[in-house]
Amino acid sequence: MAVKEIERFQKVPRDRKKRTPRVRGQVSPIVTYRQSMVAQLLLRYYTPTEIQEQLHKLAISGDDPLLNRESADGLWSLPTISADKKKIELLWRANSVEKMDIKKAKLEATIAQLLQNAWNDNDYDLCLKCVDRLIKLYGLEHIDITSGGKPIEATVQIYLPQKGSIDERQD
């Protein structure tokens, strides 16, 4: 080994803090803070390279946790920022799907209640509208049914009793 290589291994920059040991399953507050800043910059349509530069500018201007102490230039690597971006986008997508499922369930319950009330009030037009809304909510309005490559023709008839007829429901 050359003398320079030996010196390189012996030198430890004094201004760098020691890494804090990681506990499995816990995320460092620095990582959490960096990811929140990355999320804010993603919402402004910054590219990973621009995010890297912005994080460095913020770190230099006094926002110390954004400075990467393990890197010689203090910049976070592009793979790190890209990994943050992927994680944030997955989180956003999961939250969106979860919220959509909740909204769908509430809407379904509302329509079901309207359908029940309409049926009790013998308001068959509203019943049909509620059923139509449920069909659209479930995404069933554009289903292609085929048999051997040819469309199957089917007719659906809904019988609604007239008010005052024998078939009318009695409560």
Number of domains: 1
Determine the N-to-C terminus distance: 97 Å
* Main sheet summary: 2 strands, antiparallel
Gross morphology is elongated
Strand content range = under 5%
Strand order of the largest sheet: 1-2
Description:
There is one protein chain. The protein is mainly alpha-helical and about 170 residues long. The chain has one domain (about 25-150). Helix content is about 55%, strand content about 0%. The protein is built from five helices and two strands. The chain has helices at about 5-10, 30-45, 50-60, 80-120, 125-140; strands at about 145, 150. The protein has a two-stranded antiparallel ribbon. Strand 1 and strand 2 form a beta hairpin. Helix 2 (about 30-45) crosses helix 3, helix 3 (about 50-60) packs across helix 4 (about 80-120) and helix 4 runs antiparallel to helix 5. The protein is elongated and about 80 Å long. The protein starts with a helix and ends in a 20-residue tail after the last strand. The relative contact order is 0.06. The model is unreliable at about 1-10 (pLDDT under 50).
